[in-house]
């Protein structure tokens, strides 16, 4: 088992989270951050709409799970990778409400992760994204120093959060913006969503252009027959 233990609590009032905050306090800060930032538009995002268009519907549908793991103050890279793999097992075994699987999101708050440990989240995301993509999963990292840029504005560090956390969800159509550069990652995307492009069912021109460019560049690795499966559920 990975280090630490998980807890679940109900979020409350917004305020900054001090380092080492109790899980309930840290989750309250994250919940406020979701409502005040993630669910709202931002002028530097590079597009209209909220920072993440799925979070508000997921909150309404009850498909966003907010959990905490403590005992990570002295975590190293192996510990963080173990936490991510444990998170993936929890995501797969969770009995989600029926409906759009794109809405399924697991947030894992790490309230006692020290500032020196924040880069471990960036490293784990980079190291495990291929492993997770084979399962149709996407991992995002968020913390006060996160350098991850917005997909449409590389100058905007979109993944800044006052509390360190990891976010896991099913792969979605818009993930072509994150998976197009790597042949192996794009192959996993192509398996799940290639049929949509073949049917001309993807409306966003940026998605279509990015997909066609990636398909041309990665043709050998993306040449397998696309199976008609999206986000872990059959179409």
Task: Describe the overall structure.
This protein has 2 domains: 5-170, no CATH class; 177-234, no CATH class. The chain has a 5-stranded mixed β-sheet with strand order 1-2-3-7-4, with helices on both faces. Strands 5-6 form a two-stranded antiparallel sheet. The protein has a two-stranded antiparallel sheet with strand order 8-9. It has 235 residues and is an alpha+beta fold. The protein is built from 7 helices and 9 strands. The protein has helices spanning 23-38, 55-61, 77-93, 118-133, 176-179, 183-198, 205-217; strands spanning 5-7, 64-70, 105-109, 137-142, 149-150, 153-157, 165-170, 229-230, 233-234.
Secondary-structure blueprint:
Layout: E1 5-7, H1 23-38, H2 55-61, E2 64-70, H3 77-93, E3 105-109, H4 118-133, E4 137-142, E5 149-150, E6 153-157, E7 165-170, H5 176-179, H6 183-198, H7 205-217, E8 229-230, E9 233-234
Parallel strand pairs: 2-3
Antiparallel strand pairs: 1-2, 3-7, 4-7, 5-6, 8-9
Shape: globular
The total of helices stands at: 7
Write down the domain tally.
Answer: 2
Rg over CA atoms, rounded to whole Å, is 18 Å
Order of helices and strands: EHHEHEHEEEEHHHEE
The beta-strand count equals 9
Main beta sheet, described?
Answer: 5 strands, mixed
Physical arrangement of strands within the biggest beta sheet = 1-2-3-7-4
Kindly, what is the distance between the CA atoms of the first and last residues, rounded to a whole number of angstroms?
Answer: 35 Å
What level of helicity do the residues show?
A: 25-40%
The fraction of residues assigned to DSSP E strands is 15-25%
- Stretches where pLDDT is under 50 for at least 5 consecutive residues are 1-18, 225-235
| Class derived from helix and strand content | alpha+beta
The average pLDDT value, as a whole number, equals: 87
